[in-house]
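Data availability (excerpt). The following record was deposited with the supplementary files.
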Amino acid sequence: MSETETTNEEVMKEAKKASEEAHEALEEVREVEAEVQELRDEVSEEKKELEEFKNKFYYLAAEMENMKKRHDRDLQNQIKFGSEKILKNLLDVVDNLERTMMAIEKDEDDKVKNIYTGIDMVKNQFLDVLKQNGLEQVEAIGKIFDPNFHEALAQQPAEGKQDDEVIQVYQQGYSLNGRLIRAAKVVVAKN
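Predicted structure:
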């Protein structure tokens, strides 16, 4: 064999060896790229999962805050209006005191006048206690009829009064801490 053939053969062997090494290196690079892509996919999946947990956390935190606010509002309403039922029932007692006073108001007997004064004092004391607990009388006489606060029982002509002006109250209305618990039953002017 000549030297040229030997050199060519060696060059060919080296080229083949270099080609195989390059092919192996390319395979390794592809494997590494595949592993890198798998890791990227895993990281992307982890980020997505983390974002979902973060969103769930914020949602639950907001829901807890809303629930706390709702609970506080309900508690405040319970404090403000918890006595509504009993106060509403006590209004019947006030009504009966007022009816008693109306029945004996014009009596000329001194004993009856003293009884009237005593009942009036008890009624006023009773109303003061109710007021201390948030109960207020609804203003009616001389006011324009408002269906949010008044219940019209009748209409009647009245000189010197505006249309829909309240001219008589049959039953006093009351509100508890700004919320109407009983409308005033009234007679309204109609000209």
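Summary of structural features: Residues 1-81 form one domain.
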